[in-house]
Every structure is written in structure tokens, then in C-alpha cells.
Amino acid sequence: MKTLRLLCLRSLGLITCLLATTVSAQEPELTELQVHAPVTTPKVIFAPQTQAWLSTRPEVTAAIWRGAWPPLHMGFEQTQFEGVAADYLGVIQAATGVRLKVLRFSTRSEARQALLQGRVDMLALHEVSEGQAGAITQSRPYLLNNKVIARRIGETRQPSADLGGQRLAYVGDEATEELLKQQYPQATLVRYANHLNGLTSLIYDQSDAFWADAIVAEYLIRMLYNNDIYIAGDATTTSADINFAVSDRKPQLLAAINDTLNALPQNDMKRITSRWGLGDHFVADRTPLELNQEELAWIENHKKIKVLLAASYAPLSFYDQNNKLQGLSADLLAILAQRTGLEVEILRSDSVSDMINRLEANQADLIAALSIGDLRLKPSQYTRPYTVSPFVVITKRQSLVRDISELKGKRLAIPIGNPLTKWLQQQYPGVTLVPVETAAQGVELVSNGDVNASVHTQLGANYFIKHHFRGDLVISGMVGPNPARVGMVVANQDMPLKSIINKVLLEIPPEEFKTLSDRWRNHAAPAVASSWSTYKSSVYKVIGVALLFVLAFLIWNYYLQAQIMQRKKAESEREQLVEQLRVAKQIADEANESKSIFLASMSHEIRTPISALIGLIEMLRVRGGTPQQINDNLTVAHESAQSLLSLIGDILDLSKIEAGAMVLSPRPTRLSELFHSVHKLFEINARNKQLTFNLLIDVKDQHVIIDALMLNQIIANLISNAIKFTDHGFVQLSLRQLPDNLETNLARYVVEVRDSGIGLDEQQKKAIFEPFVQVASAPTSVRGTGLGLSICTRLTMLLSAQLSVDSEPGNGSCFRLEFEAERTVLADEQCHSQPLAQEGMRLTILVAEDHAANRLLLCQQLEYLGHRAVPCDDGETALAQWEAASPPFDLTITDCNMPRMDGYELTRRIRNLEQSHGKGMHPIFGLTANAQSHIIQDCLDAGMTQCLFKPIGIEILTEHIHAVTAQIERQVKAARSTGGELAKLRILNPDAYGPLVEKLINTNHQDAARLEQLMLDKELRKISNLAHKIKGGAQLADARDLIDACAQLESLVHMNDSDACKEQIKTVIRVMLTLEQQLLATL
């Protein structure tokens, strides 16, 4: 019996083991290959044996495994394989003509084992560091990669290089764990199932560092945690470039893959990576840097270069709390090392003087960042500039300086050797200049009250104020005739290094340069304090409009009642009268019910903010209060006014739609830009409620013809509701393209707005699309007017689209919008938004407004945007200011209705003066509160450029002022496209062109006479020097004939050929006379 029991137990254990083996060794799942990147199939010429092998293969099997590896394998759908690796597989499939079959295994080890056993032909995801173990060979890498360590921004604990005593999060298997134990034996390893969880563990202090691929870390940080997590440095791991793994029994397949990757243009490889949000630095650069023999020899003799970096030159170069070098200059040095193979040794310095002294003492080869024009260095030592920033003046917030002349008799700190030093001494001798070693030292002196102001670049000033002196210091304004141009500086004996650096800088693509600059540029702007004078006129206007709106509805109600009475009196026959009375009663009841519902809603919605406004204004008038109380009261008053304005806007939109006045205005549109814009608009609202706000876009046809404004209004309404009724969790906006009939040229799309909010029951889902219907279960604090979804429904009908909702109480909601749009192709200028106004450009603007509050508000808005506003209270004063202005005003903004002289007459007078003086017409904007079409036409007839309607916001004002700065920008671009500096000056500053030409002609006369005299005296050395001087003037005028003639004369002098020199001097003088005639013809 005992033996029988033992046999049963053994049999049961064997069955259990077999079942476990069966479960663990699941069959791989067939996965659909999804290719997204629009890459042209490369033309590959395969070897004969490779082509023959491909011809006999109907398909090739590639293995992947479960678990996302973004962006190589996104893992959105279990049945689909999409990402960077999938796009490269798509290129190989198209190039070889062989169908690729993708099988998904449970784990990486199972996929690798299947390759070894010959069940699959290749692995779609493989790292170079895994090696060519067993029967596995590797293709060339298609992505550059390495292992990095990510950390949480703001971490106060001091990290150690070996991560001793720290929690290291990672994603991987037992082999990964063993590798990390060898590399970081003192760290506590914490394994996570996927990369997103591992990275998120840093946010919630569940780990101290995260070990991952640079590709994965950079992608997830950019998508989700750009302000929370940063890459602290490289891990102690060899290269982890990404490639394909192929069975050694398939050498022809490996050759086909390598041939396809080699034939794929680098721009297409960059297009694939950028499609998934990766930078160009992940693409292997196959184009060698073009260097001449001298430069190659210099690199061969200088394997390591010593580079001086200022420790506090933020954001160009600085050391963070972990003593790690950061900044734009550090990034550029890394690129220099990568492209040239030079090893860079960083020498830390604390001042500009120290760097220059060490460079001149041959203790270093290069200074990484210095303003071009430093008085202590030769111009030939500077490389081309890699960033430009205006010089600005930093002061205390309560001691603003609008012009340097206000600092007369006061102290201004300026770094030693700054290019502005000589200019300030000449233009403002009454200002006491205080030399400092670094710009950071000058900022500290301002903060301590030791000086009144300090000179800094705008780039550095923004960084220091934001991170160290927020609330204390501000940028008062721009200073100097030219901006700061920052470049690198080489030692006198290292001129080939300058040429090498210039070539590397020129090779960096503009978009990559922009990415590098934006990474360190400070975009934060100082907040403008609110005041009663800022919002008083808006509050009064909103109250007045609301009262007029109520009065209009009362008049309309009276009109309806009068119509009913007239119908009752008009009927003479009894039966007809009874029927008419019944119909009239029904109409009256419906109208009365609609009126009651509407007035009940409007009474509450309008009375609530008006009561708050009246009460707060009365408290401010009677009691006043502390500055904090006044600020709080004004904030509430502003919110109440905005609520009223939003309510009236919704009602007007609804009325406009019902009246049939709203029509479609289709135009070419890029859907991704539209959705990114909406996402960014509501990102702050979601962040304020601590909600996750995601954007997903999966479309093939980006460019369509549609009414973008109407589509934007629908999506904005849906997102606003989703954020409003969601207290925790997420809100997600997605756009997908549906299968469609390609013959019709119409693409079908679906937009979904999901949230984890309060949800809706069946009754609410049917009612919410009606006007004035609100969710009954919503908290009182988040209720609105109930008009948003009603407007969305009507706009959807205009677009011939369908709007639906799927929701359950407590489980959130999903609003779904399906629409069709005609495909189109956008030109480059349509695909991109208009560039912003030239950075640092400050316009001088004449403001004519008789209303004091409006005039103050407009001037403050213009000054906030960085422009200079000259206010006037009527047209006559404005005309006098315009005539006396020197230089003339860049822009005039005038109210249309003013006493003494209105805006129309002012515009006509200015246009007459411009015509009589032969000047071009400068832009004039008209302001009016009467938004009628004939007003716009009156403004244009008077000669105005634009007609703007009150109240005007910062965004609208910025958009229209951009049109003015764009004209200046076009002049600058025209000047850049012109060959010589004289020609550029003729475009940018015609007044200065004539005197400079006359001076150049006079100088040439003197030099010609001196040349003849020196030839008589046979002073050949002096002739060479004078020829070099004449050549410099010729370069200014881009006179190639004179430049060549002078160069030939210099060459003859060096050959000591007196007779030839004498003849060449005659040639030089003859060419100088020709140049003189050409210059005189341009005056």
C-alpha cells in the first residue's frame, strides 16, 4: 500500500511538471508588422548569390518578445509590432521583396533560443554588446545606443560613481542582474517589469537611479518627464548599439540586411528616428569630416586638447550640484570629440581673465565660450559664433532703468574685456563702470546693492534670475549697438584647430543646433502684476454687455407676445379663431417655457459673477485692505469677469449657428500641428489639477482640407469638459486614421477624448447635447452654462461629422468624433508656422487713445512685449509727436473715436505727410469697440493697415505686431543675401551709406597718390602694406577685381620685381577709378 501511494505521488509530480513545461513553453504568436515612417525604398544591388537566395525564399521569419522597448518596440497593441525596429524591417522587406513574418515570443531568451534552433531566421531587436554567441551573427548597427543612468531633478543626496548604498532600478532578466552586480556591487538592485515603471519609480522616491538604454531614457523623459527626470551620465557599460541578429546558417540574409542598411540614405535614417521623437545623434554618421592635409596633420600630432571652461558661465558652461559639467558649450565639445576623434581635457576656470592668461601662456589649446570682441584677444583667434544674445541691463525689481542715461552718476558693473566697455565710455561718460571678473559676480553685486546695475547677455541673465534671483532682480532693457556673439577661442599657434572647429560647427544641422540651444535656453518670462486699472474697463464692458443682452431678450419676449395678440385679433371666424388660439397657445407655451428656462439659467449665471464684482468693488472702495487682500479681491473680480465673457461668447456662438450665419471656411491644414497646439493649450490646466494629459497621433495622411478653426473649437470644448469634470487620473486626446476608399481622395479620421472623471448615466448621455443641460452629479464648483456640448453638436453637423459618447458613472467618459476630409499636399511655407519676431527687436510705437484706462493698459501690454510705447490722449497731440519723432515711429496704434481729431483723420494726415516727404507708409492699427463690417472698411479707406477690436489681448496684439517685425526681418534677410558689407548697409541703413561711400572714395584717392610716391622711392615693403590696406577696403565693397589686383601686387613685391610692380600699380589705380565710378552710380 505504501509503495502504491509513493507511485501515485511520483506520477502526480511528473504530470505537474509536464503541465508546467507546457504552459511555460507557449507557442509564439503571429504579429502584424506596422510600418509608419514614410521612407522611399532604397535601390540595392545584391550580390548574385544573395539575389538567388532571396528569389527562393517566399518569406523570412523575425522574432520579437513580449514587453515594450520604446521607441524600438512600442507595444501599443499585442497583435502589432510597431516602432523604430518595425520601420527598419519595413525597409528591408521592401528592398528585398521578401515578405517578413513576425513571431512574438514570451521572453527574450525564448526568442534567442528559437534563433539558435532554426525556428526563426532573425531577431528584430538585438544589442551589439550581446555578442556573436553560438550560431548567431550580427548585422551592422542601425541605431547608436549606450547605457545611461537617469536621476530625478532636484535630488539633494550626493550620488557616488559606484552607486554605493543607492537603489538602482532596471529592466531585464537574470543576465542583466548579474551584469549590474558586477558593475555596481554596492548598489541595491530593484527590478521592474517595464521601462515606464522603472522610470516612474524615480518620481515617487522608490529608487535613486535608473539604468537603461539612452534611446529608451531620452524618449520617455521627453514624452513624459521632461521637467522631472534627467540623464545624469553614461553607465559603466560598453556600447549597446542596436542591430539585427541572424542565424549563421543564413549568411545570404545577413548580406541582404547589411546591403540594405548601407544603401539607405542617412536622411531617411534620420527621418525614421525623428518620426519617433529621437535626435539625429542616434544615427550613425557615415560622412567623414572633410579636412585638408594641414588639419589632418594637426589632429595626428594633437590627440588630446586642453579646453578652458568657465565654471559659472551658465547656461553655456557650468557645474551642477553633482559637480557634472553642463551647458551648450559642453554639448558642442562632445560633438567635436565625436566628429574628430580628439580627446578633450576640461580645465576649470573661475574668470575670463584667468582663461585668457592661461591660453596666452600656452597652458591650454582652446577656450570653449567667450564673447567675440574681447579687447584682449586678436579677432583671428575666434571661431565662428555658435550663439547670439543681446546685451541687457540687470537691476533690482524696484529700480528699473529704461535707458542707460538714467544711470548717470551711478555704478554699472561690466565684465573685464567686455566689447561694450569702450562704447559705454564714449556714449555715457557720466556712468561709473565697475569692472568685474565674471558676469555672475556683477549679478551678485546688484543683488547685494553694491552697484546699481550690471551688464549681462540675455541668455545668461534669464538663467541666473530664474534659478537664483527670482523676485529680486529683473532685466530692465537692452543695451549696446550690437548683440553678444559667443564663439570659441584658439591659441595663436593652433590656427588649424580653428578651421577644424568651424567645419564641425558648420556641419551641425540647424534643427540639431536649435535642439541643443533650446535645451539650455531659458523661456521663462516675468509675470505682470495685476491691478484694478488693468481690469477696470474690461469689467465695466462685460457688465454693460450683459445688461444689454438681458434687455434685448426682454424686448424679444415683448415682440413675441405682441405677435400672438395680433394673430388672435386677426381671426374672424369662430372655428378658425379656436384653432388659431390653440396653435397660438401652444407656441406661446413653448416660447414661455424656453424663455423661463433660459432666463432662469441666465439669471443665475449672470447675477452670481455680477454680485461678486459689485461686492468686491464696494469693499475696495470703502475699506481698501492690505496689498495681499487687494490682490486676492482683484483676482476674484478678474475671474468673475472672465466667466461672464465666456458665457456671452457661448451664447453668441449658439445664436450665430442657429441663425445660419456660421459657414465653413476650409483650408489646407496639418493635423499633427493642430492637435499639438490644442494639447499644449490645455497642458497647464491639466497639470494644475495634477492630471496626466496624453496625446496620441496615428495618421498616414497628415495634410487635409478642413475648417481648422471649427475643428479646433470642437476638440477644445471636449478637452475643457474632460479636465473640468476629472479630479484625478488622466485625460487622453487621440487621433487615428480609419480605413477609407482611396478612389474618393477622402480620408476618414476618428478623434477620441477619454477621461477618468465622474462619468455619465444613460439619461445624462441623451440630454447633455441639449442647450443649458449640465451634469447633475457634477460638483457645484465645476458647473458651467451647459452650452459647450450643444455648440459642439451644431459645429459637428456643419462639418458633416458624427459626435458620440461612451460612458459609465464613476468610470470616466469617451467622446468620439468621426469626420472626413479631402487629402492635400502642403507647401513648405504652409507646413510651418510663421517665425517669431526677431529676438530682441524693440519697436517704438505711437499710441493715441483718449480713454486713460485703455491707454494705460495698451502701453503696459506693449512694454510687456518688449516695445517702447509713446502715449497720447488725442489725435492732434499724436500728430505732433509723429512729426517730431526722430527716428520715426515703427508703428502707430490709434483709437478710431477721439475728441478734437479722431483716428480716421489722424491716419489721413499721416499718410499725406508720408506722401509729401517721399517716405514709405508705416503700419497704422485702428482700435474700435464697434465690431461691425462697415467699421473695418472705414478704417481701411482712411489708410489704416489693420482694424483691431477691443478688448485686445496679449496674444492678438503679438500676432499683429509680428507683421511689422516680419518686414524688418525680410530686410535683414535681403541684406544677408547681398555680397558686400556696403550693399548690406545700403539696405539696412540708407542714411549712413552715402557718407561711408564718400569716405571710401577719398581714402582710395589718397592711397593711389601714395602708391605712386612709394614706387618712385622704391619702398617695396611699404607698397605691400599699402596694397594690403587697399584690399581691405575693396573687400568692404566686394570689389573682386581690386582685391585680385592688390593680391597680385603683394605677390610681385615678395618676388622683388620692381618693373612688374610699377606696371601692376598702374593696374591697381585703374581698377580703383572704375570702382569709384561704380560707387558714385549707386548714390
TrEMBL record:
Top-rank lineage group of the source organism: Bacteria
Transmembrane spans: 539-559
Taxonomic source organism: Pseudomonas synxantha
Domain Histidine kinase: residue ranges: 601-823
Coiled coil: 560-594
GO molecular function: ATP binding; histidine phosphotransfer kinase activity; phosphorelay sensor kinase activity
Reaction catalyzed: ATP + protein L-histidine = ADP + protein N-phospho-L-histidine
The protein's name: histidine kinase
Keywords for this protein: ATP-binding, Cell inner membrane, Cell membrane, Coiled coil, Kinase, Membrane, Nucleotide-binding, Phosphoprotein, Signal, Transferase, Transmembrane, Transmembrane helix, Two-component regulatory system
